[in-house]
Design brief:
single chain, elongated, binds calcium ion, five-stranded parallel sheet, alpha/beta, 3 helices
Length: 186
């Protein structure tokens, strides 16, 4: 009697094994696929913003939340019209940088030497940036009137908080900040 070779070799339990194998392969593909780095462009001085990140309005707070939600290193740039010096008045503390990120103030149109983007902490208080992810960069921003330090590095290594303003790539910290930086590595 002729038997279908597939039926002959697989038996009753085989389909379940095939499903299990397929599920394992699918999960391996998910694990092995690297997350895509995204560049978020802040185009508004508003805070907190409407909570929706799009071309109409992307606030710094929305960009940090989105970068945190997307696994892996992301870049936050600035293009606040019409370019030149702009102030972001924070109404509350920014979210911690809980996933590695590059926050690059040199990208604001018109930048040449000194930071153009000022982040005003006179209402928000505390630290400007709390970096808990490590492997993050903050450059060319003026962090003004925070009651705490400019950048709190609370966890992880590999952070670069550029402070050399003479190269135009530094973070300009004003005297009102209690300390330029505070580090607590765990
Ligand atoms: Ca928005
Ligand atoms: Ca991210």
């Amino acid at each position: 009697m002729k038997t279908d070779p597939i039926t002959l070799h697989l038996g009753n339990r085989a389909p379940r094994r095939i499903y299990r194998l397929a599920a394992t392969i699918a999960s391996l593909l998910l694990v092995c696929t690297p997350a895509s780095a995204v560049t978020f462009v802040v185009n508004s001085t508003a805070d907190p913003g409407d909570g929706v990140l799009n071309a109409l309005e992307c606030t710094l707070r929305e960009a940090i939340n989105a970068a945190n939600a997307n696994p892996g290193l992301d870049v936050i740039q600035f293009a606040i019209a019409p370019g030149g010096a702009q102030t972001i008045q924070l109404l509350s503390a920014l979210p911690s940088i809980a996933d590695p990120a590059v926050i690059d103030g040199t990208t604001q149109p018109g930048f040449s030497a000194a930071p153009l983007i000022e982040i005003d902490g006179s209402i928000a208080g505390g630290a400007a940036f709390r970096i808990t992810a490590g492997a993050s960069t903050v450059r060319a921003l003026s962090l003004n009137q925070f009651s705490g330090c400019g950048a709190a590095l609370e966890n992880g290594d590999g952070n670069l908080v550029a402070t050399d303003v003479t190269t135009g790539s530094g973070v300009l910290l004003v005297p009102s900040a209690a300390a330029a930086m505070w580090t607590e590595s765990r």
